[in-house]
Every structure is written in structure tokens, then in C-alpha cells.
Design goal:
With 207 residues, the chain is mainly β. It folds into 2 domains: 55 residues; 128 residues, no CATH class. The protein has 3 helices and 9 strands, in the order E-E-H-E-E-E-E-E-H-H-E-E. The strands form 2 sheets. Strands 5-4-7-6-8-9 form a 6-stranded mixed sheet. Strands 2-1-3 form a 3-stranded antiparallel sheet, with no helix packed on it. A hairpin with a 6-residue loop joins strand 6 and strand 7. The longest helix has 10 residues. The chain starts with a strand and ends in a 7-residue tail after the last strand.
Length: 207
Amino acid sequence: MNATVDMTVAGNTVSGTIIYGACISSMACPTLTCEQLTGSGMLAALPGNPQLTECNLNCCQWDLCNGPDTPPPTPEILTCNTVIRVRADADVIMNQVSEQVCSPGSSCLFVTAAISISLQGRPVTPGDVTYGTCVPTSACYALTCDLISAGMLSSIPGSAELASCNVGCCEENLCNDDGSVHANVTGKSNLLLLPPQQKVRNLHTFL
């Protein structure tokens, strides 16, 4: 917090600047006001009955960030799995897996879905889709199965209908993996599909 105060020193009224910093709960800091701080005794140590004339209060969450000249941290670059895997019954019909360096401010998206799929010359069979990519964090947590199903299913050969779906977002390198992304995929899926459209912030809850 930076504050400008008027105080009386040796009979003269002078202006001064206070720079004040401390640790505070991340839940309480955004609602804190300058009036609450001054009422708690911040000005009591100053001489001459100081009066607050201006105050700027800010909160931050990185090491030593409340110094007067502390620059913000360099954004961390996130790497996510980019995966599109489709299985129809026991057959793997698409399996593309790579790693993608995301733009700053991104999250890793991870989708598992149960589908009904019809390939040329074959009856409708049950299948599953595993899908992952980088997505802007502001958008990732607003995604639902309905919003992403059209684009996800359009990459599948034949025709497919969504039966159930789980969407997850996370912010650690290669976190969009429930253990199946780099596993042997020759057999049927053993993915655990959570209830449709259930959102999870920590993908380890899949395991």
C-alpha cells in the first residue's frame, strides 16, 4: 500500500508518503480498505496527528511482490498433451499424441467421452474418445461437453454421437493425462468416465 498523509511536525503541516506492506490472507486482501488499515493503527506511530489524504492499496501473490520496485514474475510457459484418440469397440481407429507449448495464460484441457460410432460398412458400436489440448484459462473452466462436442466429433471418421462426457482443466506441465495418454492402447478403453459434464480442477481425481 502507498499512502499520502498530512502531519504536523514542529508546528508546521507537511506532507509525506507511507509505504506499508505485510502478509495477509488472500481471501481478506481484496476486500481490505484504506480506512480499515488506518483504523487498525498504521498511523499511530507517526508524530503530529497525521491525517490520510490519499491511499492506493494493492494485493499480489508472488515472492516479495509488495516492494516499491518489484517487477511482476515472468509468466510460466505451460506444456500440455495434445491428443486425439478414438476407439470403436476393441479397435483403435485414431491415435495422435504430441506435446504442445501453450501461450501464456493457458490451461491444459482434458476430455474423455463415451460415444456411439458408425464406420463405413459396420454397425453402430460403442466407443470412446480421449482429447487434450491447450486452451486459454479464462475459457477452459467455462467449457462444457455441449460446447466442444461438435468440434471434437468432427475429427472422427464415420459418424459419432456423444453418450457421456467429462471435461477437466489443469495448470501443470502435461497434467492433462489420467494415465492413459502415453499408455499402450491396443485393447479396449479402461478410462473412468465421471458423470456427464462434471468439471474437475485437479485431473488426478481421475485415478
